[in-house]
Amino acid sequence: MMQLPQQHKPSKPSAAPSCCSSWIRRSPPLSPPHKRPGSGGRSRYACRLVPLLVLTVYSVVTVLRIPSSSLVVTADSERVERREDLEALKTHLPSNQNSLEAREETRSVASLPCSAFINGEAGYGEEGVLCCDRSHYRSDVCYLRGDVRTDPSTSSVLLYNAPRGSSPEKVRPYTRKFEGSIMSTIDEVTILPVAGPYNASASAGGGGTLRRRCDVRHPRGVPAVVFSTGGYTGNVYHEFSDGLIPLFITAQRFAGEVVFVVLEYHYWWLGRYGAVLERLTNYKVVDFRYDRRVHCFDEMIVGLRIHGELVVDPKLTPNGKSIKDFQVLLHQGYSRAASSSASPPVPLPLAPPSRPCPRPAKPKLLIFIRKQNRVLLNLPHVVTACRRAGFAPHVMNLRRQTPLPAIHAALASADAMVAVHGAAVTHFLFMRPGSVLLQIVPVGLDWAADAFYGKPAQQLGLEYLEYKVAPEESSLAAEYGLNSTVVRDPSVISSRGWWEMKKVYMDRQNVTVNIKRFGELLKAARTHLRNTTACAKAAGAGAAAALR
Q1: Contact 139, 175 (CB under 8 A)
Q2: Which H or E run includes 447?
Q3: For the range 178-186, what are the long-range contacts, defined as Cβ-Cβ under 8 Å and sequence gap of 24 or more?
């Protein structure tokens, strides 16, 4: 509370109050009698100026403490207001309207997941990158960007000017990481980051890094994809599921501008699948083991992406590609019409009738047979049942040297396929959408038949039918007994692991189908084909129009 100054008493003079306390009083005290005239006035004015200076300095400091980034100027009203979302907008740029516009800060390379680089979602930059994605149970995939050079003498890849703190990585570029026994046979690639700039005097002790000379410098923007054709290569199922389809998933986004670097290279593999590889790359394949030259790239992927068994998941591909797009690739590679035509690829049509509608021909059915195990013991009766059901059956006895173009030509013109569970069922990839796949499933192989072939066939647009072999129709009933655990409860054997299951149910079993029960499935297949032909659709459309 303000206090009024007391009257000065001559008998008891008091000391003059200090300026620090007198500025809160309404008026200064009276000058004591011993002061000279005029000295009290100067002190009074000085004490009044001090608080004004203090308030002025305080106001200036307060204004200067307001950060410029927290002000947004609007062009229409020239009004300055405090912005609340400072964290969302980091950088302000002046616009043509003399206002401040904000853009979101670009994420740094270190903050991006490795999958963003592998899938091409991170864009391209000059900064060096070395990362590995080891999150998938089927494969490890590493990504390199910068000055990448191969060193076949040590099965290594060198990345010069690597990011600071990078450490060497080791990868076996094959898609069965969960299977240790087979992965131990795959050649390992060592990725070595090399820090420090190039120094031509390094060899003379200059302290720099002398880079390996490039024997082959690949064009800028053309990356390398490194993978192995070892492991189960030689089995057609694994050649597609573990190799070609993962290669399609990983490399198709480059539209041919990619170089394949292959470990454990087989010339027969290139001869067998060259027609497909030509649709994925515009360059010659590099044999990593025997090509002793140093190949230089500015980008490299070591390992392959995989989505599952004979699956291309459009949700996981950068451009939404699916297994149907892979089938178009096969059709282009193995079809003479597609290879000689410059027109863009088109989806395969539904299975058409072989002859005009008034006199339809019998639909073509191919029966794939096996010779060593899972043999169809009553094949002649099966052929007869197919004829009675209205099909024109053809028996396919494939050999390793059977050309894939010949198999493709047979299946691309077929309406249905019958096969006992095994690698040959993989050829359903050549069939047109709307065709029928009828798989004969031996005892103990229900899960494998559905996962490896049933679901993928349905995703491709095929009509999938299963004939499940009954216990009495399996040769295991004669070997172990009809009521044995092996025949009646295969889960007991399967619980012991894949190899035990394979030894019993895949390697030692043959089948004899029940012709009456098998004939019911043939009738269902015939009905489906009638409903999917162009004639049936036209008849259905006419009937619907008549009802209107």
Answers
A1: yes
A2: helix 446-449
A3: 178/137, 178/138, 182/231, 182/232, 183/231, 185/230, 185/231, 186/228, 186/230, 186/231, 186/263, 186/264
CA 453, CA 431: separation in Å to the nearest integer? 13
Q: What is the pLDDT of residues 488-517, one digit of tens each?
A: 999 999 999 989 999 999 999 999 999 999
How crowded is the C-beta side of 472, counted as CA atoms within 13 Å?
1
Q: Could you report the per-residue pLDDT of 454-473, keeping only the tens digit for each?
A: 999 999 999 999 999 999 99
Q: Extract the tokens encoding 377.
A: 């013991």
Helix (H) or strand (E) segment spanning residue 225:
strand 224-228
Q: How far apart are CA 187 and CA 156, in angstroms?
A: 11
Task: Say if CB 404 and CB 272 are below 8 A apart.
Answer: yes
Report yes or no: 292 and 216 within 8 Å, Cβ to Cβ. Answer: no
Q: Taking the CA atoms of the chain, what radius of gyration do you get in angstroms?
A: 40
Instruction: Report CA 13 to chain centroid distance, whole Å.
Output: 94
Q: How confident is the model at residue 232 (pLDDT cuts 50, 70, 90)?
A: very high
DSSP β-bridge partners for residue 466: 439
Residue with tokens 């010339």: 267
Give the model's confidence band at 20: pLDDT under 50 very low, under 70 low, under 90 confident, else very high: very low
Q: Which of 373, 325, 347 minimizes the C-alpha distance to 479? A: 373
Greater confidence, 27 or 132? 132
The mean of the pLDDT values for the chain is: 80
Cα separation, 412 vs 482, whole angstroms: 40
The answer to whether residues 472 and 482 touch, using CB atoms and an 8 Å cutoff, is yes
Contact present, 148 and 162 (Cβ < 8 Å): no
Give the DSSP H or E segment for 50: helix 39-64
pLDDT (tens digit per residue) in 135-179: 999 999 999 999 999 998 899 999 998 888 899 999 999 999 999
Annotate 313-346 with three-state secondary structure: CCCCCCCCCCHHHHHHHHHHHHCHHHHHCCCCCC
Phi-psi sector, 120: left (phi>0), alpha (psi -120 to 50), beta: left
- How many residues in total does the chain contain? 548
Between 90 and 118, whose confidence is greater? 118
Retrieve residue 163's tokens: 């990011």
- Indicate the pTM of the whole model: 0.74
